[in-house]
Amino acid sequence: MIKVGIIGSTGYAGQELVRLLTGHKDAEIKWFGSRSYINKNFSDIYQNYFQIVNDKCLDDNIDLLADEVDVIFTATPQGFCSSLLNEAILSKAKVIDLSADFRMKDVSIYEKWYELKHNNPQFLATAVYGLSEVNRSVIRNSNLIANPGCYPTCTILSIYPLLKEGLIDKNSIIIDAKSGMSGAGRSAKTDNLFCEVNENIKAYGVTSHRHTPEIEEQLSYSAGSEVLINFTPHLIPMNRGILTTSYATLKKEFSYEEIKSAYDKYYAAEKFIRVLNKDVFPQTKWVEGSNFIDLNFKIDARTNRIVIMGAIDNLIKGAAGQAVQNMNIMFNIDEATGLLQVPMFP
């Protein structure tokens, strides 16, 4: 049985970790960490866990936690994990960080885009970017995983086969993304009030969203050279889900079958990546509550461009689900353990 500790268990992504791990046959949560709710019953914070989870929330003492568990999930704000991590902790327990602290290799890029000083840049070189289907082999042997962001997960998996096979102009990529409100977190903000978001859709972080360099870095690895993108996210009035629509210029004329074969090459054996049938396009409702990503594409012969669409649940495949998937890989158990929930509908 894998002994698990969660720091930040009372945020939206943290409680999704609790939900998934509560039903995981090979894992047991030993520590429900929450600085905001120390000594409060977890089920008093989230009543859906009444008579399911009876534990109280503990503080975020990561040093003590490392002595009691095999893996620590940190579902915390940027800068938190990097401020606490040290070699002693990593020698005792594996760490899966759901923040951006270890996602980018260049510390100056992190500090510029997040406007934070990185406290432990020495770990950036060995931290593994936890995009499960792409980096599985290195995730397996790592003790520090940088769990990807939600927008990057959906975008990178959508475009990855096209860049790997050299089918698109890497300098032509434009990404339009839309997310439900849970992606903004649980803390109170005026912009997230019902009256602000209801009957509304808005772009934010235009040309400056923090996920931009993360997406660019990972797509650059796929292309084998630097990739620059236009990325514009939008908030829409729903609880959860991300839909990304990406556009790129094809290097020449390709048939549907040729493009589809590129996706099949990389994803045909992947349990959680569903490339939909021709002319069936992803919807967030089809993946809600699940660890699936639905993908598809459409060739625009008139402009010789391709439109690529992806849909995920931002709290599952975009956060907690992928984190559990990475844990399964790290501990050499069936990758799908605890993650086979059928998407909820309606």
Can you walk through the features of this model?
The protein is of the alpha/beta class. It folds into 2 domains: 2-126, 3-Layer(aba) Sandwich (Rossmann fold), CATH 3.40.50.720; 151-314, Dihydrodipicolinate Reductase, domain 2 (2-Layer Sandwich), CATH 3.30.360.10. Helix content is 31%, strand content 19%. It contains 12 helices and 13 strands. The strands form 2 sheets. It has a 7-stranded mixed sheet. Strands 2-1-3-4-6-5 form a 6-stranded parallel sheet, with helices on both faces. Strand 5, helix 7 (132-139) and strand 6 (144-146) form a beta-alpha-beta unit. The two termini are 35 Å apart. The mean pLDDT is 96.
How would you describe this structure in keywords?
346 residues; alpha/beta; Rossmann fold; Dihydrodipicolinate Reductase, domain 2; 2 domains; six-stranded parallel β-sheet; globular
